[in-house]
Design a protein that fits this description.
Oligomer: heterodimer
Structural class of chain A: mainly beta
Largest sheet of chain B: none
Radius of gyration of chain B: 29 Å
Number of helices of chain A: 13
Radius of gyration of chain A: 37 Å
Distance between the termini of chain A: 72 Å
Largest sheet of chain A: 16 strands, antiparallel
Helix content of chain A: 10-25%
Number of strands of chain A: 34
Number of helices of chain B: 12
């Protein structure tokens, strides 16, 4: 019944060689049992009185229309003519239609996943073709999961409620999971089996000790692995290597074996490399940039990388591509092969310089054009440069509004007038964070938090109600609200707002922030002498201006901020001899930084450093004042540097160094309890967040525990100088923008000093460890680390059992 | 449980269909669409199947589910091209797309799709009484595209990237010649070109000022009554005097 998809125009009166116009005199439907003739007639798209051509398209289209509904088993047409009037009869065969289907033999989540994959549609006809493609879809799903022996059995039964309908039961017998038992490689002499097996990235032997390695067998992955094996040979100069044969055989129900036979061929070397067609650069210069010497092992992949695009260094095409020569092209041609030596001729086509004409943006269904356009470094009227393109990608990624892995850069050349349009495409991702949490906050007890961070806010659209979906977005402004409270004892409110392009002409950002914190302690906690309640109240605000610099290069930026905090203490022992009164802190922070990091979520290359100087007015130099804390005086210097290098694939090494120093202006005055450093643990900060304390992590040690002193007051208040060094290897596990996951291993060392007399940058507390991070746009970065300390802190017992510990990490940490 | 919940669980197709129609009449579109979603596919080929499909689409449209209503109206129109409701369905399909067209500062792919849909409607039903409305909406959507393009080009002017502003505004003029923003674009282009020439190296200044003269002349030709006329003339005077100085100094250089 599958083939009768075309009209059978059974009338001897119709001359097929001469199409003729007829008027429809009537349409009849025969053979319908459950379906209604009038409805079917209207589905044909024809009606009485229409003029049609026979033979012609009208009738075939009518049949196609009926057929497209997927509700009929068979359709054909017969016709009778009287003069120029035609009477049509559609002869139908009804077949049962699907009213429902269900899965058995598998769990609900797999059934739900399969429901999306099978081609079954309720109300549609159940044909053999549909049944067999359903069977295949289910089998493929399980083969993907390495159930190679999965059996699918589909049974039909009539639906008792709906006439002419069937219910399908799809029974799945998954069978055993089949794994790769052994891999044998034959014909290899230059490399060991072990080395070659390592190239098969997704096809691994099952071994009891390989608990983290998947040994699933996946046909498509295996094909990719075979190509990878040949690529590996090619990179080693074995240009002719091939896989002669591969066979997969069954060892047992749940194990299979693989035999790969390779023909290695011989190893080749470069001999002479010559250049033709180059006018802008001479042969010698090009050869030096290429960096391949006579006698080197012949490696096509490396050659292509050094010619066309080398993310880790210079390549020959960059000479041209960064100077407008968009149309340039270099083709390496093997001009002679003698024995094991290959002569290459580089055929260079330089072309003309291209000027950028238009910038096209697509995919921004939330973010406004100007927010994207103002970050784009390729400007109309400028010469084309590949570096600018890549820089733009990094800048767009740094905004955080788009999935960094899918930012598209597409130069569209118009060779006719020597211009190029550049099309950027982005995929928006959610970047607002809402936190609602309750937790146990140490000495304070239960704490509730309500937080809202809007990273792409628009105050301009606030007045337009239709833009509230659910909040006005798209202008790149940042709004942050946070409330933390535990009834009477602890309350904290903070608010900040940032406009990244104040005035819309230059990337000068303005941030305004306000905060208020109240911290009370009751009688039970023995903080006050006379049993009265103790209280610490901090109110403050800050205003800061940021700008990008073009000198020394355009990765630099500068930030100036003015902040004010007012501390009010009642019976609150903050520091020796200071428990009542009011402190005012007015300070100016200047930060100079440079950042060339390529991706904010998982940086692969680039570096960043910041130097920040935080100064209060030098009261002690201006007037003779005692050691009261009415106007807090300090100067603070912080330095942070971070460097990323992509070692291989998704493996990145990050090295960091951090320093901080706190001081006063006059030799005599004491450094107060404010703005000190606390080192150790995850660095999240717990207790006194409100006296400007800097919390810095040092994994493998308890929170805030690392300080090189025995003085009790200092142990409590924190140190005045710290340094910390980190080497971290990161491996990207899942680049999925909804949940970016990476694993890491670290080695770090740091120390924190209570006074400058003891300061010694080489005396460090070290630790090692491993961990993982997950970035979800709605929650930010979350993770855990297991740290193992290598040194013992003074005063601690140093038992081996206490050396390892877990740290939970919330949020991106700078230090 | 409520009557509606009972209906949802019932297997009686015609009862559900009747209820869905009633809910539609009572403007309870959410309930109506839920019931239509359950029965419409099962009713294909029955007499009410046609009506069910149409009202399902409408019920979704009324709720603002424009992605769904667009798909359902389109299916309706391809399935029942000769139905008396077909014209309305095609128009409603276009309108579903129109509703999805975003603000001018966002990606305009949906706007272009909507324009295509209205244009298809104009071709198919050239005698429809909805023609005027369709033409009005097409005009509105084109103006949105004009506004977007103008904003993008003007941004370079605001950022003071003068060369880019001149290039981008020139492109805007070429591609959106009849837009209401063309006049402003012509003036801004002139001003951007003048400032670009002013900041150029001496060797290139003359050529670039000359270009500004051209831009001025075509501006006056096209918009003799322009509100920017006076400012444009001021720019032109500045260009003229800059050119005069340049020519004088180059003449001096040649003489000496």
């Amino acid at each position: 019944s599958q083939v009768v998809n075309r009209p059978t125009q059974s009338s001897s009166l119709i001359d097929y060689s001469q199409p003729k116009q007829y008027r429809i005199g009537g349409i009849a439907i025969s053979g319908s049992k459950f379906l209604e003739p009038i409805a079917l007639t209207s589905l044909t798209g024809l009606k009485e009185g229409d003029m049609i051509t026979v033979p012609g398209e009208d009738i075939s289209r009518a049949i196609q229309n009926l057929w497209d509904q997927g509700i009929l088993g068979d359709v054909d047409v017969s016709a009778r003519t009287e003069g120029d009037v035609i009477f049509l009869t559609f002869n139908l065969t009804e077949s049962p239609r699907l009213s429902n289907f269900r899965f058995s033999g598998i769990n609900k989540s797999q059934a739900d996943a399969l429901r999306e994959k099978v081609p079954l549609q309720k109300g549609r006809l159940v044909t053999d073709a549909i049944l067999s493609s359903t069977r295949n879809a289910v089998r493929e799903y399980y083969i993907e999961k390495s159930f190679l022996n999965a059996k699918v059995n589909i049974t039909q039964r009539p639906d008792s409620v709906l006439p002419n309908s069937v219910v399908l039961n799809i029974n799945v017998d998954k069978g055993d999971k089949v794994k790769v038992g052994e891999i044998e490689i034959v014909g290899n002499e230059a490399f060991t089996d072990k080395k070659l097996k390592r190239q098969l990235k997704n096809t691994k032997e099952k071994k009891f000790y390989k608990i983290f390695t998947s040994s699933k067998y996946n046909r498509t992955k295996f094909e990719e692995d075979k190509e990878a094996l040949i690529t590996f040979y090619n990179t080693q100069g074995y240009r002719d290597a091939t896989i002669v044969s591969d066979s997969v055989y069954k060892i047992s129900e749940d194990r299979l074996g693989i035999i790969l036979t390779v023909d290695e061929g011989q190893q080749y070397y470069y001999r002479n490399i010559t250049w033709t067609g180059n006018y802008l650069y001479d042969d010698e210069y090009l050869a030096r940039v290429l960096g391949i010497e006579k006698g080197d092992v012949y490696d096509q992949e490396e050659l292509a990388k050094r010619l066309t695009y080398n993310p880790a260094g210079v390549d020959v095409s960059a000479l041209y591509q960064n100077d407008g020569y968009l149309f340039s092209n270099i083709e390496p041609v093997e001009v002679r092969v003698e024995g094991d030596s290959i002569d290459i001729e580089m055929r260079v086509f330089e072309g003309t310089q291209a000027t950028i004409n238009q910038i096209l943006i697509s995919g921004n269904d939330k973010t406004s054009d100007h927010v994207i356009l103002r970050e784009i470094r390729t400007l109309p009227g400028q010469k084309y440069s590949r570096d600018d393109l890549i820089r733009t990608r990094n800048e767009l990624a740094a905004l955080g509004y788009f999935d960094p892995e899918t930012i598209g850069l597409n130069p569209i050349p118009n060779p006719a007038d020597g211009t190029v349009d550049i099309a950027y495409s982005v995929v928006e991702r959610p970047n607002d964070q809402i936190s609602l949490s309750g937790g146990w906050g140490g000495p304070i007890g239960a704490v509730g938090t309500v937080g809202l961070t809007l990273n792409n806010f628009s105050t301009r659209k606030m007045l337009n109600l239709s833009e509230w979906k659910p909040i006005p977005t798209g202008d790149g402004q940042r709004l942050n609200l946070n409330i933390q409270a535990n009834g009477k004892y602890y309350q904290s409110y903070s608010f900040s707002f940032t406009e990244p392009w104040l005035g819309g002409r230059k990337a000068n950002s303005l941030t305004v922030s306000l905060f208020k914190t109240i911290y009370r302690r009751g009688q039970l906690q023995q903080q006050s002498q006379d049993g009265a309640e103790s209280l610490l109240n901090v109110n403050g605000g800050a205003i800061s201006l940021g700008r990008r610099l073009n000198w020394p290069d355009n990765y630099f930026y500068m930030n100036h901020s003015l902040s004010y905090s007012r501390y009010r203490l009642e019976n609150y022992a903050l520091f020796s001899g200071f428990s009542n009164g009011i402190s005012n802190s007015i300070s100016v922070v200047n930060t100079l930084g440079r950042s060339s990091i390529d991706n904010p979520t998982f940086p692969r290359r680039g570096s960043s450093f910041t130097l920040s100087v935080n100064l209060t007015p030098p009261y002690s130099l201006l007037s003779d004042r005692g050691d009261d804390f009415e106007y807090i005086e300090f100067n603070k210097f912080m330095f942070d540097a971070s460097y990323f290098i992509n070692v291989a694939g998704n493996l990145v090494i990050n090295t960091r160094a951090h320093f901080g120093f706190l001081g006063t202006y006059s030799k005599d005055s004491e450094i107060g309890p404010f703005e000190r450093f606390k080192l150790g643990g995850a660095g999240l900060g717990g207790g006194n967040v409100f006296v400007g304390t800097e919390y810095i992590g040092l994994r493998g040690y308890d929170d805030e525990s690392v300080i090189n002193t025995n003085n009790g007051t200092l142990l409590n208040a924190g140190g005045i100088a710290y340094n910390k060094f980190v080497v971290e290897a990161r491996q990207l596990i899942s680049p999925n923008p909804a949940a970016t996951i990476y694993g890491l291993a670290f080695l770090e060392a740091g120390n924190n000093f209570g006074n400058y007399k003891d300061y010694n940058p080489f005396k460090l507390y070290r630790s090692v460890g491993v961990g993982a991070r997950i970035f979800m746009s709605a929650f930010g970065l979350l993770g855990f680390d297991y740290g193992w300390r290598l040194d013992t802190l003074p005063g601690s017992t140093g038992r081996n059992a206490d050396r390892g510990m877990f740290h939970f990490i919330i949020g991106q940490q700078i230090r | 449980c409520s009557n509606f919940q009972k209906l949802l669980k019932s297997t009686d197709v015609s009862k559900k269909y009747q209820a869905a129609l009633e809910y539609y009449e009572q403007e309870e579109y959410y309930r109506s669409s839920q019931l239509f979603d359950q029965v419409t596919d099962l009713m294909a080929g029955t007499e009410e199947g046609e009506k069910a499909q149409f009202y399902r689409a409408k019920a979704h449209f009324m709720q603002g589910n424009y992605i769904l209503s667009e798909a359902y109206f389109r299916t309706f129109h391809t399935t029942y091209p000769r139905s008396p409701l077909a014209e309305e369905a095609l128009f409603m399909q276009a309108q579903s797309l129109y509703e999805q067209s975003p603000s001018y500062q966002e990606d305009q792919t949906p706007t272009l799709t909507a324009i295509e849909a209205y244009e298809e409607f104009l071709v198919r039903y050239p005698t429809s009484e909805r023609i005027a409305e369709a033409n009005r909406v097409i005009e509105e959507l084109y103006q949105k595209l004009d506004r977007k393009a103008f904003n993008q080009a003007r941004l370079y002017y605001q950022l003071r990237y003068w060369r880019s502003a001149a290039v981008a505004l020139n492109n805007f003029q070429k591609e959106h010649a009849s837009s209401p923003y063309s006049e402003e674009a012509a003036f801004l282009k002139l001003d951007a070109q003048y400032r670009f020439a002013l900041e150029s190296v001496p060797a290139k200044q003359e050529e670039r000022f000359d270009q500004a003269v051209d831009y001025f002349q075509s501006f006056v030709d096209m918009y003799p009554e322009s509100q920017y006329r006076r400012e444009a003339e001021r720019v032109f005077d500045a260009v003229q005097s800059a050119l005069a100085t340049l020519r004088k100094s180059s003449a001096n250089n040649q003489n000496s």
